[in-house]
Amino acid sequence: MKRVLTVVFFCMLWSFAAAKVEVVEFSDPEDSKRYKTLIKELRCMVCQNQNIASSNADLAKDLRQQVYQRIANGETNEQIVAFMVARYGDFVLYKPPLNAKTSLLWLGPFVLLIVAVSVMIILIRKRKIQTTSDIDDEEIDRVRRLLDNNK
Amino acid sequence: MLRSLLPLALFVLLIGFLAAGLNLNPREVPSPLVGRPAPQFLLKQLHEIDKTLGPADLKGKVWVLNVWASWCVSCRAEHPILNAWSSDKNLFLIGLNYKDAQNDALQWLRRLGNPYTYSVVDRDGRVGLDWGVYGVPESFVIDKKGIIRYKHIGPITMEDLNSILKPLLAELEGESA
Question: Number of folded domains in chain A?
């Protein structure tokens, strides 16, 4: 059993190695860092729920190659992102920009939070009013008289 | 009464949103290129490799760019519809053979019929990248001024052809260059 598990384990190691993306080398470690961040922030349009760093799709490979070449040519991150957005739209970004189209996406959660908090405040206030109005002065007097009679 | 109906109303609203979401196709990402000038290219033609073709040669014409490959399964489903469409005399259909081997592409057209007015070869997918292609087949409609007016993602069906593409082309033909 142990031996089987060991074999399975090494098979898994192999598949991880196969899924790895091609090796790229930069002379400047700063560029290498930029490359890694950029390919993490760009979506693979074919597989949609993966970034181009983790995708094996052919298009993801092309896009990684583009990012690599553009960094090597001295383009800034903004220029590279603009290149991708011009072709594939904002959807290619994992971090969508705040604009008129995405305002609902960005502001929606805050609007919902405000609505929820307001509803909560209204409900709590209502309950308070109810508890204070349950017993009026007349009843308190009656309770006092009853207690006094027992003395 | 109203109070007890409120959760039900919210539930129905939620179901409505979910139903609408389920009916959307996540593959159909709106292209930022619609309404923009068609990206330029100059590519070798598939049948005559010493000749080139690009959007500049097609200025003043309404044309359709169909991105396809012989390895693409949905392209096979689309092909008979393109063949039927190609009998329209006014149609200017350019095939962009995307990341394909020349022999495979030529054989495909010989066997299944060639609906294209011209075919151009994008061997490494560089032009496809400029056009924002992320899946084949994709089709673009370009007007007389060279502006992309419509993008169709995925295989064109007979219904797409009759209800969207043909009326659009007729409308664009009427525009001045």
Answer: 2
Domain of residue A116: give its range.
Answer: 103-150
| A107 and A88 together in one domain | no
User: Which one of A92, A111, A137 terminates a domain?
Assistant: A92
Q: Decide if B28 touches A, using CB distance below 8 A.
A: no
Give the C-alpha distances (Å, rounded to integers) separating A61 from A30, A44, A145, B70, B139. 22, 9, 89, 20, 23
Whether B29 sits inside 8 A of A45 (CB atoms) is: yes
pTM of the model: 0.77
Q: How far apart are CA A141 and CA B72, in angstroms?
A: 89
Element (H, E) at B123: none
In a domain, A97, yes or no: no
Q: Which two tokens stand for residue B82?
A: 């393109």
Q: Which one of B28, B40, B131, B134 makes the best mutation probe of the A interface by having the most chain A beta carbons within 10 Å?
A: B134
CA distance B14 to chain A (A): 14
- A66-97 pLDDT, tens per residue? 999 999 999 999 999 999 999 998 889 988 88
Size of interface A-B (CB pairs under 8 A): 35
Question: Does the predicted interface ipTM exceed a cut of 0.85?
Answer: no
The torsion of the CA quartet B87, B34, B105, B77, rounded to 10 degrees, works out to: -60
Single-letter amino acid, residue A69: Q
**Whether B26 and A85 lie within 8 Å, measured CB to CB:** no
